[in-house]
């Protein structure tokens, strides 16, 4: 059986020869975005995700960010000791869809605990881009594979699904947990569903894949806003979340592997990243960033 082609990141910087991104290279630093955020141009072409500081035909300008604790910012002697199969693998690409119901709830799924990277974390449905897919096609395929939801642009307002932002993701997320084993650029999209597609309607259509997902939930705006405010590097310890419900409704599997509704505690969703390897149940830092961008985008429309 043939090995699937991995879609890798290629960097195109003004005045410099294009090149594949190195695994141990901080992409934002390469483009001089030393503040940890900025905007670049992106397109998927010839099975490469091309990131550039120069606009090109077919490219889209998009926000990009990483946390200040990004391991690739702080690699030193650790980089020398990375195994060859890690240090030479380049930077992978994923696509993820923030799906918003017509009544303003956001779908997140909890990654299965046996997965190799980010096990047990809450994220939007998503995964790797496959050969000859567009970024959006990959996001829609992963949404269907993970949740059973067969989404089309025609299910969305204005028949559109919008490119939202890019996130530079490394696992483990901190060097204190362990040396890096995966480096990704995650492409986030936002899809707002048509009026009749409420969270109640959509949750009846979910049939999630237990090999990928432990549970799914449509989260209301109070919880989504609190998650976005709990961003792992600028968290305000003074934030009061007493207004949040103590639990939220989620789809989980019972002992017979049948989907059932269950109330799960809200507190882990607003938990910030720790230095521990046993860091489950929280929302991933990249997801918090994407939710911030979504809320900011919607506020700008008001």
From TrEMBL:
Family the UniProt entry places it in: Belongs to the Nudix hydrolase family.
Transmembrane intervals: none
Pfam families associated with the record: NUDIX
Name of the featured protein: m7GpppN-mRNA hydrolase NUDT17
Reactions mediated catalytically: a 5'-end (N(7)-methyl 5'-triphosphoguanosine)-ribonucleoside in mRNA + H2O = N(7)-methyl-GDP + a 5'-end phospho-ribonucleoside in mRNA + 2 H(+)
InterPro entries named in the record: NAD-cap_RNA_hydrolase_NudC, Nudix_hydrolase, NUDIX_hydrolase-like_dom_sf, NUDIX_hydrolase_dom, Nudt17_dom
One Gene Ontology CC term in the entry: cytosol
UniProt function note: Acts as a decapping enzyme capable of hydrolyzing monomethylated capped RNAs (in vitro). Hydrolyzes monomethylated capped RNA after alpha and beta phosphates to form N(7)-methyl-GDP. Shows low activity towards unmethylated capped RNA.
Domain annotation Nudix hydrolase: ranges: 88-241
Domain of life according to the entry: Eukaryota
GO function terms (MF aspect): 5'-(N(7)-methylguanosine 5'-triphospho)-[mRNA] hydrolase activity; metal ion binding; NADH pyrophosphatase activity
Cofactor(s) this protein cannot do without: Mg(2+); Mn(2+)
Hydrolase found in the keyword field: yes
EC identifiers of the protein: 3.6.1.62
Assigned keywords, A-Z: Hydrolase, Magnesium, Manganese, Metal-binding
